[in-house]
Amino acid sequence: QQQVRQSPQSLTVWEGETAILNCSYEDSTFDYFPWYHQFPGESPALLIAIRPVSNKKEDGRFTIFFNKREKKFSLHIADSQPGDSATYFCAASLYGSSGNKLIFGIGTLLSVKP
Amino acid sequence: EAAVTQSPRSKVAVTGGKVTLSCHQTNNHDYMYWYRQDTGHGLRLIHYSYVADSTEKGDIPDGYKASRPSQENFSLILELASLSQTAVYFCASSVSYEQYFGPGTRLTVL
Fold first, then answer.
1. Residue B85: helix, strand or coil by DSSP?
2. In this complex, do B104 and A43 lie within 8 Å of one another by their Cβ atoms?
């Protein structure tokens, strides 16, 4: 059963536009929400993450908006660049003594056209 | 910087054969994970470990075993490889929340 839902599966934006990627989750005990990006032929790499004590996290052009009540979070990529073209995965987890078991969404393939 | 290596980087196996994928980390991290990646499914957790000589089942453990003989090494074992296990396998390590991924192993079962 998929516990983290991600949409859209693919997204095309023009250079300079804001790309918006969405995720929702079911388990209210999750306490960590990262976004990873993955370029073709490479491994996933952490882009930005948020804990539910905040409803917004910014890092340069990348911003996570978090809505605990609705169990949704989104990634906004401002001033999108062709180099941002990649697959983006949201994830959620509950960190415990046995580690951080990430549950990933299915991914969004982002294409930024120049 | 964190370093997670995997071997082999690619492998072709025959149905019913045994396959061992290896992962080595030099991060001194306690936690290690094995994921598989398939188109349309993202990454799914197979097994994980939080201490040497102990492994735990993840979300899709069927058909896989894991071994953690030391803090640095974590192996994924397919005793009887099947066609459905064709995928890219990623190992990761962490000390807390952030996970560092290895380069992946592309496994093709014929």
1. helix
2. yes
Residues of B in contact with A109 (CB under 8 A): none
Q: What Å distances lie between residue A16 and A47, A84, A114, CA to CA?
A: 19, 11, 9
Q: How many CB atoms lie within 10 A of CB A45?
A: 13
Nearest alpha carbon to residue B6 among B94, B89, B69: B89
Whether the per-residue pLDDT at A2 is higher than 70: the answer is no
Mutate to test the interface with A, among B25, B43, B45, B106 (most CBs of A within 10 A): B43
Secondary structure percentages of chain B, helix, strand, coil, to 5:
5, 55, 40
Kindly report, residue by residue over B8-48, the tens digit of the pLDDT.
Answer: 999 999 999 999 999 999 989 999 999 999 977 789 999 99
